[in-house]
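Dear colleagues,

As part of the handover before I leave the project, I'm documenting each prediction I ran so the next person doesn't have to rerun anything. This entry is a single chain, and its sequence is reproduced below.
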Amino acid sequence: MEEKKLPFTGREKIRFNVPPFTGREYEYVRQAVENQKICGDGEFTKKASHWFEEKTGTAKCLMTTSCTHATELAAILADIKPGDEIIMPSYTFVSTANAFVLRGGVPVFVDIRPDTMNIDEKQIEAAITEKTKAKIKIMRQPKRSATRPANVGETTGAAPTARPYIPIAAPLRSGG
């Protein structure tokens, strides 16, 4: 597929909402349909939850149908109150901010790194105030990138422990 260039700058357009494929998706859909389980608590959800728990060391992974639902759940679990500030990437779906704004939170946008398309962990510290309640990290990886998602260690250490770091996992590219 030919890359699209922005007029006047010659820079590549950011590819957005392009689904990744590994080549096995049709087989997985067939299996889910044959098992008559195409909703939340089927075999693939259980496998994905177990994999995520194992890889991250978390006690329990709550799978959702979308990143929007995950962000809304995170806002509820973080007990966002009116006036609470939430640090988030400037490049994200509007639903990332909406989940917190609907509960009275105030989004504080931090620029992204062009190599990962994720929040620039070096800019988080400057965005923290007394009203900062949480930091949101949308974990994604551009399809053409050989890099991994943003440095989680730097991101988690950027705010005092009283301010939770809330990772929201967007689909990673195959092999990512």
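The longest strand covers residues 132-139. Residues 43-56 form the longest helix (14 residues).

All the best with the project,
I.
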